[in-house]
Amino acid sequence: MTQTLWNIQLDVHVDPLPAAVDTLQKAAEAALAYTQCGPATVTITIVGDAQMQQYNQRFLRHDSTTDVISFDLTDEFEPMRVFDIIVNAELAARRSRQRGHRPEAELALYIIHGLLHNLGFDDAEAQDFMRMHQTEEVILESLGFGGIYFGKKRPTEETL
């Protein structure tokens, strides 16, 4: 089913990749399935800090590295959604050590986060932040990663 609906491609620019390619593809599929996304082409580019800093400067005018940058390149007149996601594997490795989980779980979080932004989720306001990150947790848990962003204890709106 997913092969006919979604074309997911990974473009890896780091060695070694701290995750299995099929795990990262499954993360993208899980986000698309959870949001009931129709036909889509998703390109996931996996880079390190230096290349991510260049992308962040070029596209967002921030002179620093970041975890994920996502683009919705969908033509409004076409039924196929087109998404480009860039994720930082080196940052994922560092943050996963700090948070006490595997780098592939952190990379999966970045992929899911980028896709959710492209599918209409936002995290600028407290209520939207809560909805988006709880959705990420549900998707990550469905993949067997457990709580990544909030850990085992999810915050309530009052604790934000």
H/E element order = HEHEHEEHHH
Please, how many domains?
1
Question: What is the C-alpha radius of gyration, as a whole number of Å?
Answer: 15 Å
Name the structural class.
alpha/beta
Question: Main β-sheet: number of strands, strand sense, barrel status?
Answer: 4 strands, mixed
**Helicity level, as a percent range?**
40-55%
Brief description of this entry?
The protein is of the alpha/beta class. The protein contains six helices and four strands.
How does this structure look, described?
- The protein has 160 residues and is an alpha/beta fold.
- The protein has one domain (2-159): Collagenase (Catalytic Domain) (3-Layer(aba) Sandwich), CATH 3.40.390.30.
- The chain is 46% helix and 18% strand.
- The protein has helices at residues 2-5, 21-34, 49-60, 89-99, 103-118, 126-142; strands at residues 6-12, 40-47, 68-72, 81-88.
- A four-stranded mixed beta sheet has the order 1-2-4-3.
- β3 and β4 (81-88) form a beta hairpin.
- The longest helix is centred in the last third of the chain and has 17 residues, at 126-142.
